[in-house]
Amino acid sequence: MADSRPGTRDRLAIIAGGGQLPRYVAEAAKARGESPYILALTNESADDWSGFDHEVISIGNYAGIGAAFRRHGIGRAVLTGWVRRRPEWRDIHAPFKALLAVPSVVRTLLRGGDDTVLKMVIRLIESEGVRVVGAHEIVPGLLGTEGPLGRLAPDAAAEADIAAAAAAALALGRLDVGQGAVAVGGRVVALEGAEGTDGMLERVAELRAAGRISQRRKGVLVKLCKPGQDLRADLPAIGPETLRLAKAAGLAGIAVEAGRSLVLERAALVCEADAGGLFVTGILPERTEGGR
Length: 292
Prior knowledge:
Elements (H helix, E strand, L loop, with lengths): L10 E6 L4 H11 L5 E5 L11 E5 L4 H10 L2 E7 L15 H6 L3 H7 L2 H13 L4 E3 L1 H4 L8 E2 L7 H19 L5 E5 L2 E5 L4 H14 L10 E4 L13 E2 L1 H9 L4 E5 L4 E2 L2 H11 L2 E5 L9
Parallel strand pairs: 1-2, 1-4, 2-3, 4-5, 9-11, 10-12, 11-13
Antiparallel strand pairs: 6-13, 7-8, 7-9
């Protein structure tokens, strides 16, 4: 176990965005005997962090984040949770040495896709002498596994939808746009954009209610890593809320990439899936590009 005592420069920092993942990682680190320091992002993290050493900091304040690393002996950092809003260029505060290490900070934030931006953030953190680790390294049990997670498995129609949605998700990922796609009756009907997976599923439900999607055929949500994605940040994730939205959209189930996706509240997710008649399964899509 890593030494997390102040002054050792190996304490773990959790940069916490929105969603449930930051809390899972923090609790798991604490259970391992660590004393994680939480950097809760302004207007993103809604958790009550009173049980942890923490501070609230804006996402563009790289100088402040670096100062917190030095002040609290941080040697490792994990990026967790979603970020809904990118900082404007005027909100960016970075030390000169970081700008030398990553000279295209502003251009990347304004024009880059999510994975491009996350890779830049990792480089900024590393310029402070801090090692970035993946959430799955802190909580390895969160990784999705191959095959059905519950008692239900995809049938032939669902397998065809999985193949169609997986191909679309990989194509979308090459553009660094999103990680998810929905296929119904072998036809791709929705791609994940800036609204995220939840917003996409809500859109599918609206399309089905309006008669734009077949009422007879169910369909599947597929979430995959982007080709070439750095696996230390923004792994595809699903949880009970994803399942509820998939059910509301009339889908037969969810497929995620085995070994490269996170499954939150697995026991509750599987229980709800079995009770609701949906499958959740881990797949190994064919890839031509490698990821870290």
